[in-house]
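Q&A log
Question type: sequence-to-structure
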Amino acid sequence: MRFWTSAAAGEILRRDEHVVRKLLNPRVYSKLVNAFSETETKLRSLCEDSNPQLKNAVSVFQQAVDSGSSLAFSGNNLMAKLVRSRNHELAFSFYRKMLETDTFINFVSLSGLLECYVQMRKTGFAFGVLALMLKRGFAFNVYNHNILLKGLCRNLECGKAVSLLREMRRNSLMPDVFSYNTVIRGFCEGKELEKALELANEMKGSGCSWSLVTWGILIDAFCKAGKMDEAMGFLKEMKFMGLEADLVVYTSLIRGFCDCGELDRGKALFDEVLERGDSPCAITYNTLIRGFCKLGQLKEASEIFEFMIERGVRPNVYTYTGLIDGLCGVGKTKEALQLLNLMIEKDEEPNAVTYNIIINKLCKDGLVADALEIVELMKKRRTRPDNITYNILLGGLCAKGDLDEASKLLYLMLKDSSYTDPDVISYNALIHGLCKENRLHQALDIYDLLVEKLGAGDRVTTNILLNSTLKAGDVNKAMELWKQISDSKIVRNSDTYTAMIDGFCKTGMLNVAKGLLCKMRVSELQPSVFDYNCLLSSLCKEGSLDQAWRLFEEMQRDNNFPDVVSFNIMIDGSLKAGDIKSAESLLVGMSRAGLSPDLFTYSKLINRFLKLGYLDEAISFFDKMVDSGFEPDAHICDSVLKYCISQGETDKLTELVKKLVDKDIVLDKELTCTVMDYMCSSSANMDLAKRLLRVTDDKEERDKEGASEEGFEAKEEVPEERVITLRALSMEDLKEACLMILQSCTKC
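Response status: OK
Response body:
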């Protein structure tokens, strides 16, 4: 097949005119030449850079080739124009038409085809175009490879991109700075900073110097990763090499420090930019404003805002949005609304994000009606509420308990074209709200609607419903949902298994729960401590202590180390089974694991030892609890002190009360009366009794003062005579005071 360019065809027609005249009727010949010239002219006109009409040009080309014209030059030129205009789908379609009409395809068109495949994310076909170029005798260049490198990195195939770079060097086609920067950027976007830096150093070694863009890519990536010391190291290295960092680099660094909460260092860099004589742009100002707002430093943010205006930089929608977000973050909703109005007055149109921030804050404050007014303002100003807007409203309505209104809103989203279609988050918000209010049947109806419209829910949906169905004891429905998850493409996460394990434990179906835990252990998902604790607790409650011990040991073998709750469950289970030695060994194991007993641990040990009649052991743990900084609750104090009284252990009672008084631990009124009545029977304990009563008096006075400060009138729960000075009471007076307290407690 011989391919002619259209120009060559025209030249042949003119050169061999006498031959053609013999073959063709003169009038036919004249029409052919005129038509050819007219088509070329028309195509050139349609492809003019000032006003390209490329779709029309493609139609003209198609008509010309259908009539038998050969327009290879115009076709290749049009292909190049389509690619340059980024109309890649049309360019690809046009290339196929060129193939169908046997139009000669030159190197430029093949380069364009390669770019089309890259833009369409078909890098495999793009490599095929390179092979086609080679087959046709064209020498591909660095530009072609750079396009391919960009495509590979966009598809997160940076490893292949590095291989292509090295293949280029092997073929004596040296990668340029753009080649390296493309792959370095790809690694940075994939958060593979070590590989990016390794390639950047390789770039230096190959004789290709870093450009300002290279420095900028690395600094920006390290800033986003929060590695500010390394980022500042790059800046220092730039300065050492005599390179001037531009505003883009400084803005990246300022943003990095702001994101890390180091506003002082970010502000210092901003001041450095000003000292250099550079004029920060709106992006730089917005970065600082957002950083200050994020930390609630609105005064500093306002100062930057004012300075920005003084310097003649117009605040944009991102400036106002950052300030509004900051105001909402510190609870200044009224001021945020005022700023929104100011923004509109200054002809800076808020975007959906701006409105959503305010709507979200109003909904969190329970002001859903006000949030709906903002939505109406949004519509009035021709900013279409998006899914986030409606999802916030759904969440707000559900949180307020307006589930019927939330349901109406969801159905409006489904039926009214002026609303956005609900996504899975929309359905989840309503399902969660209904489940919280124990309206499980309605929640399941919404779930069925979700499946009908979207095909399936997500993990959040199933986790909510699994929790609720098992909580309601509807095991059959829970199993049905579990089967749906198994049959669907929903990837089960640890929360899904946790919901099932916890639910089955609570419904007493321990075998099913154990089966799920085993399934979880052999999968990629590792059970959490909470999962083990659910089963341990249930096994101990049903008296299967041996099984609980086996599971406790398996848990540790799987490197899932028990927490305080795990030990508490096992200690409680052992004590209930009368296995004191195991409880003591668990306490030792707890200490070895670096864990300290909590209030629950001590409470269980004290109560169990008291029930077994081991007062010394109970008091020992009581002392340890108080010495550890825990304040024993009324139940523990009641148990220990009353046991001492019942056993006539006056000395032990005295020691315990002394410890409580020294620690300023206040007993409740009834127990105070009981202890004092017992202690007052012996004059030897009078001073301690006075101190105990004084602690109680001081606590009551503090409570009254606190109540008055909060604006509440202190209620007089005891007779006025109760508030008395106890420093010099006689034994008889002290006993009388005890009786008065006891009488007042009885009345309460």
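Response note: Residues 1-36, 699-735, 737-748 have pLDDT under 50 and may be disordered.
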